[in-house]
Design a protein that fits this description.
Blueprint (H helix, E strand, L loop, with lengths): L2 E4 L5 H12 L3 E6 L2 H11 L3 E5 L5 H8 L10 E4 L15 H28 L3 E5 L12 H20 L6 E7 L5 H6 L4 H8 L7 H12 L9 E4 L16
Parallel strand pairs: 1-2, 1-4, 2-3, 4-5, 5-6, 6-7
Helix pairs in contact: 1-8, 3-4, 4-5
Amino acid sequence: MNTILITGATAGIGLAAARRFAQGGWRVIATGRRGDRLRALADELGDACLPLEIDIRDPESLAQLARLDPPWGDIDLLLNNAGLAPPMDDLQQADPAALNNAIDTNVTGLVALTRALLPKLIERTGAIINLSSVAATYPYRGGAVYAATKAFVRQLSLDLRCDLAGTGVRVTSIEPGMVETEFTVVRNRGDQAASDALYANMNPITAEDLAETIWWIATLPPHLNINAIELMPVSQTWAGFTVAREA
């Protein structure tokens, strides 16, 4: 039986992935900061799930994950899903604490956890799937720091492939467009109406769509590596140029 470790498993893509992999017969190490949700997920998935209340920004918490005993310590796939975005303020008006929180979660924590688990993933000839974003490629106003963190994740994934050459470990960057989850509610400071308005009448990607994509990548023959995959809803495309005109 294979084992996946999922960060940010309490909602959205991480939660959907936990359910999909448990359905597929995998052990699921579900991590996140909201213990009540993790316990509910463990009740739902039963013995297939190990819930661990972990803050990816805490180095000691991450070190615990590298010291798990078998069979849970035999990790075959790391899904770096935990992430967040600060509010969509222009950088000159943005709250520094919100920016640093995004960097600590999306970049610093992801790197620390990945590095801590690499020995086991190499031993198991495992895989790493990182959640990036189309924001890594296409800029938009108010997204500077979030987009930069996702560009980091994308480039880290590609360069990690170089570092892992010859080990058999696969690395993939998944770069989705508009996905309707709690992510946007959090970004809009808890404003559900703002999130609903963003996704109204446009048929966005769902968390379950991405869980199926992650499952497909994870279950490909081991000699194949998806370096990066970008996906959008059909109704989403790229923005036009913005022009500031003189009065």
